[in-house]
């Protein structure tokens, strides 16, 4: 015979006088004690929180200044070593609304990673999807399944689940970049696997090519190698270079100026990093895009299901998220929680405001739960 | 000029001596104060929790006895009215590992719903996907977008997002059933919308047909109405009747006895409720199945990413989940957390053990994060 | 060194005076001789045929009377044996517009097959997709990959590419049915493979079950065996029974009478035989449907890309195809060529007109070339 | 009352003594007369042709020399005007096995198109899919839906169904290129629509940009405009430039030389022109690729369902198709019929053999009828 539930119940129920709830009575109190004993919670005490008219995010609209991040990362560079166990000198944004956990939003992780001259971050792999984005600097190579990928300003490096990877700083300067991962989503849904690899790569693996092999194979517009015809869930391209991104954004604005439809809205160009094997998002859980507003232009005000993290890549402007508003400049990171209205405006005295964005949208699209809405302006 | 971050930081960091973490020093303490001030958390203090070798669920393997649930629901029936605001007399399983919240698992809601003779649960709709499963009783009709659906023992009633629905007990007996929803997932990912409908339906809408219109249109094996050719994300069939489910399970076991491949493993038959427009899961976020083990048969021991809730529909048996083990009987509900090994065995003196199961597997398949593993036995 | 083109040219060109063509001159005649020598043909002499404003089918609208077919098949039954080499006593419809070839339409094969008491049609397999439809009679079993499938009036038996199959008449009466295949399409596109199997099955394989194993596993509405979760290009159900088809059609008409949307147009019910693994057509190249017009009802006049073959299953009515019009009755077969307008009307003194239809539509949908158009009436 | 079948039957049947066929008798002759009268053909007289063990193509392996084509096209340029009615000065390959029709293979059209200095080919559109490939020359612009596309050596210009298009030669030299279309497939399946547009474009539309607007929007590796997120059945990129193709092929051979997997087989690089919205073929009915064999390299010998047309873009080599073998050089076109083994070898004294290829493979993949086989060498 088995004895069950021999643990103290975490359920605590209190009869209160409130709309939609039964009037407090001794009988109700007794019922609630029974619920607690049997690990039960009624809908009627929870419905306001669980079934709101539209999403009310626990996460806050919040801004992190790049200068402050880099300064703290640099201090960490001097006193915290990189190695097995801690694995990475990565310092994550902790959304003020999420209880001090290293979660930029309920689903997204965003961190500054920092590597001192000559340092190596040891090889490992995990099922969380990841990417790197470089707002400034260069000189680190990320080695993914043995393929060395240069990191330079403006480059976007996606890295799908379960790929071995290590980092090496081949210069005499520290380098910072941001890591984006779906760590909170994998944590919440309890779907993570992790494996450590070699502590150090062979010196011969720290080669420093201008282009990774993945780019030499894949980064040709509209062309696929006939030797690689599978539809892959994650992109096989390990780097999307700034030169290409910049040109694509410029062309959209020029086409618009010539009178053709190319932009999202007047003065607002945007490209999505995509998987050349299927035209879809680079990673199954994260959408990654670069947006450019020309001088004085303003984006349409949009709400959408799910959350985004933005980093200012260049320029300066004004950003409004729900009831918050900030002037932003290069490197600044901010968060747009679910269903909060978002607008960005490029300062009139800057050529453009370039915003790197990543979001959890593919999760919602995959389960048919995505909604968006444009507000009148 | 804007002032940011004028709220107290929720981040609390403590330098400790531990593997993979930097040695506590005054400099480290000072760095941590800086992190707290700027709402930052380093990976090295969190990696053990966030990046385990495999999923370590916060949820517990847990069993709820049906008798206890029904007794409490019946008491609630006598003292808690059903109406607008509370919306439903639904009493949810609260997993002991999940802090007293009404979450059976991190992603799934499971509740007993109870309706007294003549009662109406008012009309509403929400983006959370839902289903009803009837372990015993009959006499309630669920009205979905104006289509009356009878509920009888063994019936499975899926109900996709954003469909108007109300319940009516047309008998002189109370009736209980279970509701399954993706409420915790929608809550966590902040993707919920909700709308109230009419407080009471017209009496003429409480018709009591043997089959809903949805079944008359769709419940014909392999046949689609040519007037309805869209690929729908949720099944258009509002009821899957026990008679069909039972026959399908029996045929699998009979085919196995005749020497043909039909079962999952010896003595273990299983059917999945499916969407006839695309052959996929009935709901984008929940997989729903009925399993039957014949007398003495044992399922293969399986671990998988994601969580399940089971209800015993009939028979009796022994269930092992991780380190827990229970004898189960009709109506009992239990939870299998992510990556915990699960085995079920039918008692030798029962004809069969029938287990209704629902899980969050479609979410993981949609984002390519699903894994499963069969353990040697 | 190789000598090429040492065969007489099949090209014959004639300079003529016609719109869009160059004026005949000696120089043009000389040019045409050069084209002939080098196996070339100019667009300008062919464009009218190859690039019409809309499809002009070479196939004719044509009707075959069932009585005549059965009588000839019966004569063949007495003088033409069934066996290896000829393989089947199948007599195909030869569209008058297609040069005497056994092609009902440019892409579709339709034949009456006839099996005398006790006869066996030997086992073979081929990449052409096939189905059987039974307008009358019973007593033949088709054995598909070892699974015996009963054939009775109204049953539809799809059989995808490369499945072993044989037929056996287990009664003392001859039996006729129709075979539908994509033989002309496979012939034209040159994609056929064929293999002979055993000349006779073991007597033990000629079992006569009421339901095939495929039906016992699959023919349960909305339920899939968890042991078979692949998305298959062809349906795994080897028979769709008349009882189900008839009930589904009746329900549509009853729902319509009750005021609900269920039919294609007033008085016109239709079901499509579908693949339960993906909700799509039973076969990748052939769409198969059953249509029912109630007494006096008329279908909407429709043109579509691609061709159809119809067989009258029951009732009587008037059918219009392009400029042809026929009174039709049980068993009659007729063809609707590409883009010819089609209308059917049930006689007022018959309860219904039931029309079995198959078409090549999936081919056009697969390559995004499908169009349809409804004519004003 | 209607009289049917009042036309002479095209069916002609002859009783002969042959394997698999019934012995000729007067009764059989009489049966055949009945078949002829009723427009019927038995399987047993046709099965050898219709159901072979594997595809036996009616099309021949055949070679067309570019020099001869260009010379005849040039003569046509002098005596045959371009204009409405004839529409294009296109001269099509007529496969010797296909009865003198302008069909390179049963499904594919390949023609040399020729435009004299200053000439315009008038605007039209059709549902046949098309592309242009330029083996030499430049100076013609193709205007697709108002977007001017430059044509230069090595460029590939796909153009999906129903797009308005015209050509203009802006130079003082004639220019030749090849057109590939699915005209024979659309003709056979009877799915063609055609519309004439303006006879001449406005002079302002004959702009001569280096890059079309489609390229400026789309030709950026791995980047999609966020303003264009639909999954399109045909590629939105109107030109794939030789510079990109050449670099992609070179990278594959260099990667192979460095020891990495990148080529199809040793010394054999290949890229497929793909649709950036879904990673699939540029056109739903035609696969288009560029292959490069380095000096002395030989491709694997391959058979496949469906037919291909090749044009030698550069280099020289030896080509074997079934029992035919040819030495080929720049511009030569040849055909590989269904299931005939194909091998290409680059001459040892040329740097490479570059072969442009198009085939009907997407049709077979779409209906699950594709097979391929590599022969031992």
Q: Any guess at the CATH architecture of the largest domain in chain A? A: Sandwich
Report strand order across the widest sheet of chain A: 2-20-17-22-15-14
* Secondary-structure element order of chain A, N to C: HEHEHEEEEEEEEEHEHEHEEEEEEEEEHE
Could you tell me the CATH topology label of the largest domain in chain A: Jelly Rolls
Shape of chain A: globular
- Radius of gyration of chain A equals 24 Å
Helix content of chain A: 10-25%
What characterizes the major β-sheet of chain A? 6 strands, antiparallel
Number of helices of chain A: 7
* Beta-strand content of chain A: 25-35%
Uncertain stretches of chain A: 1-5
Class of the largest domain in chain A, according to the CATH hierarchy?
A: Mainly Beta
CATH superfamily of the largest domain in chain A: Jelly Rolls
Terminal CA distance of chain A: 67 Å
What does this structure look like?
Chains A, B, C, D: InterPro entries: Cupin_2 (IPR013096), GDO-like (IPR047183), RmlC-like_jellyroll (IPR014710), RmlC_Cupin_sf (IPR011051). Chains A, B, C, D: This is Cupin. Chains A, B, C, D: Keywords: Dioxygenase, Oxidoreductase. Chains A, B, C, D: GO terms for molecular function: dioxygenase activity. Chains A, B, C, D: Residues 113-179 form the Cupin type-2 domain. The structure is a homotetramer of 377-residue chains. The first copy, chain A, has 377 residues and is an alpha+beta fold. In chain A, a hairpin with a 2-residue loop joins strand 7 and strand 8. The first copy, chain A, is globular. Chain A contains seven helices and 23 strands. Chain A folds into three domains: 1-51, no CATH class; 62-218, Jelly Rolls (Sandwich); 242-374, Sandwich (Jelly Rolls). Chain A has helices at 26-37, 47-50, 66-79, 183-189, 213-218, 242-257, 361-366, and strands at residues 40-42, 62-64, 90-93, 109-115, 120-126, 130-133, 138-144, 147-152, 156-159, 165-169, 175-181, 194-196, 223-225, 268-273, 287-294, 302-304, 308-314, 317-321, 324-328, 333-336, 342-346, 352-359, 372-374. Mean pLDDT of chain A is 95; it is low at 1-5. In chain A, the strands form five sheets. A six-stranded antiparallel β-sheet of chain A has the order 2-20-17-22-15-14. Chains in contact: A-B, A-D, B-C, C-D. Strand 14 (268-273) of chain B pairs antiparallel with strand 13 of chain C, so a sheet runs across the interface.
């Amino acid at each position: 015979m088995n004895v069950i539930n021999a643990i103290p119940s975490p359920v605590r129920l209190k009869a209160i006088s409130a709309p939609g709830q039964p009037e407090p009575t001794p009988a109700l109190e007794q019922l609630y004690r029974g619920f607690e004993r049997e690990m039960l919670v009624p809908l009627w005490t929870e419905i306001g929180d669980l079934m709101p008219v539209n999403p009310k995010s626990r996460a806050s609209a919040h801004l992190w200044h790049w200068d402050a991040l880099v300064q703290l990362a640099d201090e960490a560079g001097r006193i915290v070593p990189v190695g097995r166990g801690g694995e990475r000198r990565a310092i994550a944004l902790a959304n003020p609304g999420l209880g001090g956990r290293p979660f930029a939003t309920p689903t997204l992780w965003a961190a500054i990673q920092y590597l001192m001259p000559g340092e190596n971050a040891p090889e490992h792999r995990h099922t969380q999807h990841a990417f790197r984005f470089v707002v400034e600097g260069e000189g680190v190579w990320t080695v993914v399944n043995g393929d060395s990928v240069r990191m330079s300003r403006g480059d976007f490096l996606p890295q799908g689940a379960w790929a071995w990877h290590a980092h090496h700083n081949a210069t005499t300067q520290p380098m910072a970049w941001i890591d984006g991962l779906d760590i909170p989503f994998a944590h919440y849904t309890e779907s993570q696997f992790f494996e450590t690899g070699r502590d150090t790569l062979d010196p011969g693996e720290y080669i420093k090519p201008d282009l990774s092999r993945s780019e030499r194979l894949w980064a040709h517009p509209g062309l696929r190698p006939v030797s690689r015809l599978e539809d892959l869930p994650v992109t096989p391209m390990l780097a999307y270079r700034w030169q290409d991104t910049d040109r694509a954004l410029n062309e959209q604005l020029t086409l618009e100026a010539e009178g053709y439809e190319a932009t999202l809205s007047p003065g607002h160009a945007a490209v999505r990093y995509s998987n050349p094997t299927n035209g879809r998002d680079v990673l199954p859980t994260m959408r990654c895009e670069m947006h450019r507003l020309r001088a004085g232009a303003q984006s349409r005000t949009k709400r959408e299901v799910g959350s985004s993290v933005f980093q200012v890549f260049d320029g300066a402007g004004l950003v409004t998220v729900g009831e918050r508003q900030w002037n932003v400049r290069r490197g600044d990171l901010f968060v747009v929680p679910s269903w909060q209205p978002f607008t960005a405006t490029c300062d009139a005295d800057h050529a453009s405001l370039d915003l790197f964005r990543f979001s959890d949208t593919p999760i919602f699209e995959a389960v048919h739960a995505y909604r968006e809405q444009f507000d009148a302006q």
